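Weekly puzzle thread! Below is a chain. First person to post its structure in token form gets bragging rights.
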Amino acid sequence: QVRMAESGGGLVQAGESLRLSCAVSGRSIRYYEYIMGWFRQPPGKEREFVGGFSWSSGSTYYADFVKGRFTISRDNDKSSIVYLQMNGLQPEDTAVYYCAAGDRFIWGSTESSDFGSWGQGTQVTVSS
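Winning reply:
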């Protein structure tokens, strides 16, 4: 079973940056078998896809609204932490941000139902 724990959320002003972390763990986990996804849920709205990351290739894909402001990465091949770097934050980016894991065959998916394991979320609040 894959477990995720997000951290790094907080309150920032419009235009500032935050880096969220997702620590991934699990007994005998084979990271290359998973796609990691970042999602967010703004207050009163549905959960929406932010971006995805492949452990095996390091490739990424993003939702259109990211527009080059957000970047998913990890430090190196041995790291079990995936980051979501968010630049130029705006009030509309206010949401609970979640990381999630899904089987590697869901590459390209933006559907939350394709991701079977979820973290508890971290709150990001952007003031104007």
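Puzzle host: Confirmed. Bonus trivia for everyone else. Residues 87 and 109 are 24 Å apart (CA to CA).
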